[in-house]
Write a structure and sequence with these properties.
heterodimer; A: mainly alpha; 80% helix; B: alpha+beta; Muramoyl-pentapeptide Carboxypeptidase, domain 2; four-stranded antiparallel β-sheet; 8 strands
Chain lengths: 80, 231
C-alpha cells in the first residue's frame, strides 16, 4: 500500500480512537487532547515517513502548540 | 483536482466551524477535540502528494537504463570493477580501468570524454544509473545511513531495511532485496543495482568508492564498499 495513504489512514484512526477513549475517561482539558494528537502525528510520521508537497508546516504548528501547552503547564506549577 | 483533495478540503471547511461551535456554543470538549483532530487530518491529506512516482516505476526506469550500459560494456568487452568518483560538477562517474587495474584515479576534474588517461592508466568513463538521482534535494544534509535508507527503502523499495557499518570498509546490509536484474557485465563492472546506488551515494558523501564484494545471505545481502576519502 502507498505509505502516504497509509499514514493518513493511521492518523485518522488514531485521532478517532483518542477522542472517545479520553472522553470516556472523563478528560475535559482540551490541551490533553491536542498533546495526544501531536504525539500521534509525530509517531506516525517517524514510522511511516510520508512525503510532503511542501515543508511539513503542520508538524511545525503542532510542535509550537505543544510547546505552548507545556510552557503554560510548567508556568502554572512554578507560580503556584 | 483529485477526489481525495476535494474530500480533505470539505473536511477542513466542515471541521473549523464545527470546532468553534463545539467550543463556544456547546461547550463540549470532546467534540471540540474531534474538530481539531479532523482539522489536523484534513491538513495532513492536503499536504500529502498524490502523484508520487510509484517505487516500482523508479526501479523499472533504473533497471532499463542498465540494459544500455550492459550493451556498451559488452561492445567494449569490459568486465573490470570500476571506481565511483564524484567530479567537480557534483556528478558521480564510474571510472573503469581499461588496462591493468592501477587503483582509482587521483584527479577529480569533470571528465570531458569517454576515455580518461592518467599516467599509464586509461579509464572508460560511464555515468551510473543513480548519478542524477543522488542529487535530489531530499537527501541533502543527510548522513550516509539516512540517505541510503531514503533512497533504497523509502524511494525505490529495493529492500525492507538497511544497516550501515563502517570499519575501514563500509558495509551495507540490505534485508529482503527486491531488485533482480540479470545483466552480468553490469554487475561485474558497477556491482548490482543496489550496490551501484549505495556506491554512488557514498562517493557523493565520502570519497572514491569501489564495490569490493557482495555477499548473499538467507534473507539479506551484504555490500562491502572500499572507500578512499576525499582529500
Amino acid at each position: 500500500m502507498n505509505k502516504n495513504l497509509l499514514f493518513n489512514i493511521v492518523l485518522g484512526g488514531m485521532i478517532t480512537l483518542t477522542v472517545p477513549i479520553l472522553g470516556a475517561l472523563g478528560e475535559t482539558r482540551l490541551d490533553a487532547y491536542v498533546s495526544m494528537f501531536t504525539l500521534e502525528y509525530f509517531i506516525a510520521t517517524a514510522i511511516l515517513r510520508p512525503r510532503r508537497r511542501i515543508k511539513d508546516i503542520l508538524a511545525l504548528i503542532l510542535l509550537i502548540i505543544f510547546f505552548f501547552i507545556v510552557g503554560v503547564r510548567v508556568a502554572e506549577i512554578l507560580l503556584t | 483536482m483529485e477526489k481525495l483533495y476535494i474530500f480533505a478540503l470539505g473536511l477542513l471547511i466542515f471541521s473549523i466551524p464545527f470546532t468553534i461551535a463545539s467550543y463556544i456554543i456547546l461547550s463540549n470538549i470532546p467534540l471540540t477535540a474531534l474538530g481539531i483532530g479532523l482539522t489536523i487530518l484534513a491538513s495532513s491529506i492536503l499536504l500529502t502528494p498524490l502523484e508520487s512516482i510509484p517505487p516500482k516505476a523508479i526501479r523499472a526506469m533504473l533497471e532499463g537504463s542498465i540494459l544500455s550500459l550492459e550493451a556498451i560494456l559488452e561492445e567494449f568487452d569490459i568486465s573490470r570493477r570500476g571506481y565511483y568518483v564524484r567530479a567537480d560538477d557534483g556528478r558521480v562517474y564510474l571510472y573503469v580501468p581499461l588496462s591493468e587495474d592501477g587503483g582509482p584515479p587521483t584527479k577529480r576534474v569533470e571528465p570531458s570524454g569517454l576515455i580518461h588517461e592518467e599516467g599509464d592508466s586509461r579509464y572508460l568513463i560511464l555515468i551510473p544509473p543513480a548519478s542524477e538521482l543522488i542529487k535530489i534535494p531530499e537527501i541533502s544534509g543527510m548522513s550516509l545511513e539516512s540517505a541510503l535508507t531514503y533512497m533504497l527503502v523509502d524511494l525505490m523499495e529495493v529492500a525492507d531495511s538497511i544497516e550501515v557499518m563502517s570499519d575501514g570498509f563500509i558495509t551495507v546490509r540490505l534485508k529482503n532485496v527486491k531488485s533482480h536484474v540479470t545483466a552480468g557485465r553490469f554487475k561485474s563492472v558497477f556491482g548490482s543495482l543496489e550496490a551501484s546506488i549505495a556506491a554512488c551515494l557514498t562517493a557523493n558523501l565520502i570519497g572514491v568508492v569501489k564495490v569490493s564484494d557482495e555477499i548473499l545471505e538467507e534473507n539479506s545481502k551484504v555490500i562491502i564498499l572500499e572507500v578512499w576519502e576525499h582529500e
